């Protein structure tokens, strides 16, 4: 029922192959194919623990469908240390974010729609998946090669093409748990039981969740314009499950239950199989998810508890200027939030430049 | 005639302000305003020497117009060492390329065109520059702040708004001299006397040259659609003047002469004031400027001399796999170029990953 | 009474001088000269807040003697970001620890002792300070120059030569507060009110505290061998005041009071001027201050609360091997402590290599 | 005759083992055991090519004795990229130089000498090797573990204990070929045909060559003091074979021949088997091998050709201060060499801090 294989995602200068484990849970027939990935950013290790706990849930209670679990998805990033910390957010050579290099190409979408307009849904979807696979294979076979980050991303992405659900497990820097929800998929998002939610439009920006749903979203939109309705066949979410460089096995257990509860809505288990203690949930549109950048440099005290609403004008940080110690004038700059907001995450260091992203906030929140 | 001021471009955690020198050469009346910048990437220092030599040409022979010289444009990047080398290509915190964060926003272009359709060219251009300045000021005044790289980029960009010519001096990794030429500005590009030329479309991709010409290009296109012809008021080029981490004062003198020779065409000096020994010139379209990525990892011998045409199938690198020493089978992988090509640059290290950008090539070359 | 000057400690590639603030509190006559420095490692910012609070205590209650406060002592290290964190523990070019490059040279100690054997204590000490100054000046004037880290260290060290007390404020990675106590100076160490104490021999290992006391210790030993007793004229301590990358102004206030309470014993204030809530204190010899290195790589749960004694055999960490998920066999390695111990600090990341320093422990503890 | 095995030298956070290839050439009986290692610093790849060429010489002409070839000795360092370059000179976590962590402990030497004073040379040497092996095994079995760099170093070092000759292949930054020669082993050093030579005392400083010969040197000295002469049983050299980040297969062939020619003197081949075109050779004592540190920061032109003698006072670099462009006063600082000298290597970047090691020089040269 549970099998493990390995995927080679890149070769290192030493000659060693970077290999990613791929655990397949073959469940009872009749359920969806679910792809779950963790740790594409090297320091974001919490998702691995969540996958471990989710596998335990599968062992305790065999699901319907197929779950593909991919922990430790980026060995290159995981191994990239710089000082004590893990510099695994971007390719150390190019600066390219490891989660912005997935493939998306809908240039031929009109042709595709025209030629499959009379197919039934299943045939149409199968053809569309076939087209996505062919695109990926073609790019990976380019005689000019591909960048390190694209090789990693596309090799992982090949495993997602047949999935009905794609979940990408991340963390923030110092962060409350939050969730990126594509607008069309709001209905079931609350089931993850994640308190802070960002509702995204359905465009492609390079990340895995977008790479998974955007082709389908555009397909359904184009078909709608041609007078045909196609229910969205794929759901995809990015879960941010706390802070980087931390491992919290107890919280992982709770988040695995939240994921399982969501998967109940997709048919993996009967409704109500998994219980969670509900948390209050807030949501805002992506355009209202705002970063606050530091107005000056210095040594910073973070003042705003994550996850708790604060009114406009609240001081959220005090930036000290110890190089002015002993001089006249104020020794710190107080930073306030411009609107009513809920702090989601803050920077991981107390030592900041002018322009450092200090905080991200939900603003103009609404019910999920 | 020559004055120096300083621009604060960011504050460092230690409290020190990162300051950029701004040298203004006030020439005879009647010439263009020319903005020249060097070293936005920390390791690309050769442009500073070119500006130094160009200033000497101005001293020897006072130009018409105004030249604004900005060497050492990115003190944050220049100071970012990692091992012996300078890690100044991207923000060490975010991975953002320092040359991809300039401002561009033409969302209100239709409105602008409609309201200035009856203005004369000078009035229209002055209004457009005013609009660009207002956009930059508005973004810099955001209550949410801006990213470190945007603060740097936009503060520099403010100095370019009044310029008729913008030249951004870069280098490649290990590189022959090459030039990015906007398609509309081909006519005078040969005057720089740079052997390898990439002809770009006129879209915005985040770099300074594009930020300088794209707003104007779109303006002229939109006006053309409305039946009005506006000659492009701004020229902008990115010059790649050799290899990073090198300083070659003699070559800088030659490239300063090439720049001066180009500026003759813009009215800074009488034609023929500056002489260069002409070099053969090749050009290709940006779409034909191709990167070759490494098909495997290893230790590499670069085989193709830069700047010299090679036919399709030529071995351009040998990638050794010394970890296989003593085993059967080939000890190296030979990499060939898929089409006829001219190698422009190669990677700076002999130690590569799978997917490292090994070379960039002109292909399908044409006359400049 | 309070004056601020600046010391240039190095020039950066951009041309900017790295400058360190030097705040001098000129107290009532008759007290010691005290030198306090913070933030020689770029991420260890808490000491700056302690100096700020100590300056407030001086303002509230003018001390006897002279206090020299040097916050932000290493602007080069403070500005060295790598990802979100501060890579300021070692020179990014050479890997040299910024706190291992101070000067020490007692090669001529025999000659010095012989020629000053008949001097009184004050004359002898003045001559010895003069000799230290001359050594530093000579090294700084070398025609071959000095390394970046030596330039920084020696320029700071010049300010310590006249001090009777030298306090160097650091932090650990994730760390309980702890103190390095030279063996000869145990008597007053408890006054800092720091719970965990490491009693050091009096040799030179490169750090500032050692550079401050070792010359004098060897002098007193050599004189003792010649039949003369010289009370140690200099005390020096390294205080580790919590975790790097954190700023805790409340804790800083408490630690400033502890320092002031220690300085009472040196004559800066009358006994009992400053109050602290006493904490239990443990001590061990440096040889019993043990690092525990990771027996394998993986993603780690730290299990042992810092500062609390644990018996031999206690599991202190669980190292997960998520790359083995879905395979048979144990998914984690449990790490136990080999002896009875008190955990002082642990590594700052949950992502470790084989051989990463996981923890440091006091073992064989005794009364301070 | 040629066999390959692998040595695990460390586990990476991703779970992958860092493995080092070990190629053993079993030659005709009667010759020495020779251990050759390359690439302990990640960017110093040229030694791998030299080992490859040396293996070809062994295939062409079977040696006497046993050669153990260890290319790619530090996979962790080889994979550590930062920007384009390889940051493999020191552990990215701790800053520890990978070539300063070998084991040396002669504390029990007196006891050893006393108990083996009457043994014959072969017995004594075997016992000493046994003692070294036991020391290494004991340290590697410590219940407290060992640091990443020590694990790597000691695991490699275990392979050297039985060797009669240890050769460690390095490169400089931008460098002429040079050789570290232990004083006692000068007689045959010229056979390597390396132009620049540094004659070292026989102390331990942490590097592999010292770790290989220092225990034996101290043994022979101690025995001499007890009236017994023991010819040095081990030779060890560090070869610096050009510049980092470069691969020059032709030069590798010449240096492999030089090594083979040296090994003729140790009995691996008959005298005269391998030919080299002799190069002029210079030598100086380690104390006269001088680094020149930059007196200021800036952008640098290196003026002195490597390997060619220059008289005292020669300008060897011009450090430009482009941030002063347009201002009065000199735009560069000229750096001169304080004594007659031969430049051996210079810094790899044109962008330097105050205190950057600009050059290293042989001074007070003598015949090798």
Automatic annotation (TrEMBL), chains A, B, C, D:
Source organism, top-level taxon = Bacteria
**Pfam families, per database record:** AstE_AspA_cat
Domain (Succinylglutamate desuccinylase/Aspartoacylase catalytic) ranges? 31-264
**Family annotation (SUPFAM superfamilies):** Zn-dependent exopeptidases
The cofactors named for this UniProt entry are: Zn(2+)
| Gene Ontology MF terms in the entry | hydrolase activity, acting on ester bonds; metal ion binding
Quote the protein name from its UniProt record: Succinylglutamate desuccinylase/aspartoacylase
- Its source organism is Ferrimonas balearica (strain DSM 9799 / CCM 4581 / KCTC 23876 / PAT)
């Amino acid at each position: 029922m549970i099998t493990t294989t390995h995927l080679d995602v890149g070769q290192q200068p030493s000659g060693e192959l970077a290999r990613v484990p791929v655990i397949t849970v073959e469940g009872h027939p009749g359920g969806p194919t679910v792809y779950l990935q963790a740790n594409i950013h090297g320091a974001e290790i919490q998702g691995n623990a969540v996958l471990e706990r989710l596998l335990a849930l599968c062992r305790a209670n065999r699901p319907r469908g197929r779950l593909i679990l991919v922990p430790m998805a980026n060995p290159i990033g995981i191994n990239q240390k710089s000082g004590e910390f893990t510099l695994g957010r971007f390719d150390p050579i190019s600066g390219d974010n490891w989660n912005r290099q997935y493939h998306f190409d809908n240039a031929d979408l009109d042709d595709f729609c025209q030629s499959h307009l009379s197919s039934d849904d299943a045939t149409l979807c199968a053809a569309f998946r076939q087209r996505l696979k062919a695109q990926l294979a073609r790019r990976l076979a380019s005689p000019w090669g591909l960048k390190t980050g694209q090789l990693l991303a596309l090799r992982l992405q090949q495993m997602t093409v047949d999935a009905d659900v794609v979940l990408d497990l991340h963390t923030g820097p110092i962060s409350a748990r939050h969730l990126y929800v594509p607008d069309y998929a709001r209905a079931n998002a609350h089931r993850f039981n994640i308190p802070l939610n960002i509702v995204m439009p359905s465009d492609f920006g390079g990340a895995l969740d977008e790479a998974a749903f955007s082709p389908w979203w555009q397909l359904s939109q184009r078909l709608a314009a041609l007078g045909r309705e196609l229910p969205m066949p794929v759901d995809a979410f990015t879960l941010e499950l706390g802070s980087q460089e931390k491992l919290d096995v107890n919280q992982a257990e709770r988040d695995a239950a939240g994921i399982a509860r969501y998967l109940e809505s997709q048919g993996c288990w009967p409704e109500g199989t998994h219980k969670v203690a509900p948390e209050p949930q807030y949501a805002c549109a992506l355009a209202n998810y705002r970063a606050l950048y530091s107005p000056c440099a210095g040594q910073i005290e973070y003042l705003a508890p994550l996850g708790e609403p604060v009114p406009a004008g609240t001081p959220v940080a005090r930036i000290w200027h110890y190089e002015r110690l002993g001089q006249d004038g104020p020794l710190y700059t107080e930073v306030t939030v411009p609107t009513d907001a809920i702090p989601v995450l803050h920077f991981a260091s107390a030592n900041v430049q002018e322009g450092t992203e200090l905080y991200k906030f939900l603003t103009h929140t609404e019910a999920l």
